[in-house]
Specification:
By secondary structure, the protein is mainly alpha-helical. It is built from seven helices and two strands; from the N terminus they run ααααααβαβ. Keywords: Membrane, Transmembrane, Transmembrane helix.
Length: 363
């Protein structure tokens, strides 16, 4: 049989471009967010320096640390300055620092996997290997889908925190003209709202990168599905699908340059036709076969009359020339009746009735 051609992916150029962008962006983003999660884990363990002088300029950074990353450790006064957190503690965030630590640890592991599958995506997408390409896209899509879902979940959570800080800050007066006491430490609520909105933006990767990741995810998944369901990627005239009902799937291969042996008649009675001018009449074999089967005496005939292959040999010539030969003309023309399968001429005469009286024709 003919060897099967190598399967190739249709419209590979656009797929390769999308895979390269997805791989490069995946490597860059995974490295950045691995650094951010490691920084958050170090902040929970009080490894980072915050400030030793609390002011309105350093309040946002200090509140950021206190709300989301400060663990149960005590920091050195030269690295961190305590302040009154009474107003700040009136707001209950969705995640406390311990839950944020667990979330960051999980995100760190997913980011490492994202880095690995992005490198695999860059290396495994090949035009002549659809199976390997689909595998690489499927693995990459799984982890990117997990990243996108976690980003949406954390973004919604920090958005809820921002709404709570904003709602609590509206209760405090900031103008001496209005009735009420002014609380300077109410500014910590504003710093808490800034910290929440910053975490939401980081979670959504600036929104733009999230939409880019999601768009690449949808595109590559659709292309992978099309590659998996494409049954015509290796179809040619000489290599049809195995599940096709085309006769080409079962026929023997064409041997165009092989000699074909023709079986000739092997009896001495065969005389080749040498006449220059002859009129050949083709006999309708189907009509003869039907007439022979309709004959009532067909069962009495010899079995060889029902065998088409029995007449492939020419009968022996009659040594006694009982009939005189016709005088040959200058351009003799003879009529030769050829029966392709050699059935005898059927008997169309009416059969005698049992009473010995011939019945008239009914039709």
């Amino acid at each position: 049989m003919y060897p099967a051609p190598a399967a190739k992916i249709k419209h590979f150029g656009s797929l390769r471009t999308a895979a390269v962008w997805a791989g490069i962006l995946g490597v860059a983003q995974s490295i950045i967010w691995m650094g951010l999660t490691i920084t958050a884990i170090c902040a929970f363990n009080c490894v980072l320096y915050i400030t030793n002088d609390l002011s309105y300029g350093s309040m946002v950074k200090t509140v950021f640390f206190d709300v989301y990353f400060k663990g149960g450790c005590r920091m050195n006064p030269s690295d961190y300055q305590n302040y009154d957190q009474t107003i700040l503690n009136t707001v209950n965030t969705v995640f406390d620092p311990t839950q944020i630590l667990i979330w960051n640890s999980v995100y760190l592991g997913v980011s490492v996997c994202w880095l690995i599958v992005s490198v695999v995506l860059l290396l495994w997408v090949r035009k002549d290997n659809p199976k390997q390409t689909v595998t690489a896209i499927s693995i990459w899509a799984f982890f990117v889908a997990a990243i996108c879902c976690m980003d949406v979940a954390s973004g919604v959570i920090f958005g809820v925190d921002y709404g709570r800080f904003h709602e609590e800050a509206l209760r405090y007066n900031a103008n001496s003209i209005n009735a009420g006491v002014i609380y300077p430490l109410a500014a910590t609520l504003i710093a808490g709202g800034v910290a929440a909105i910053a975490m939401m933006i980081i979670s959504f990767k600036g929104f733009v990168l999230w939409f880019i990741n999601f768009g690449l995810l949808v595109y590559l998944v659709v292309r992978a599905i099309r590659i998996s369901t494409d049954k015509d990627n290796v179809d040619t005239l000489f290599n049809p699908r195995k599940d096709s009902n085309d006769i080409l799937t079962t026929r023997t291969p064409i041997r165009a340059y092989e000699e074909v042996e023709v079986q000739a008649y092997n009896n001495a009675a065969y005389v080749p036709e040498t006449r220059s001018i002859a009129e050949t009449i083709e006999v309708n074999e189907g009509a003869i076969v039907r007439a022979a089967h309709l004959s009532m005496d067909s069962n009495l005939m010899d079995r060889r009359f029902r065998d088409l292959n029995a007449f492939q040999q020419y009968p022996p010539p009659n040594p006694q020339q009982s009939r005189p030969l016709k005088p040959s003309a200058q351009n003799p023309t003879e009529t030769i009746v050829v029966a392709t399968s050699g059935f005898p001429v059927p008997d169309y005469s009416p059969q005698p009735s049992p009473n010995g009286i011939l019945r008239p024709h009914q039709y």
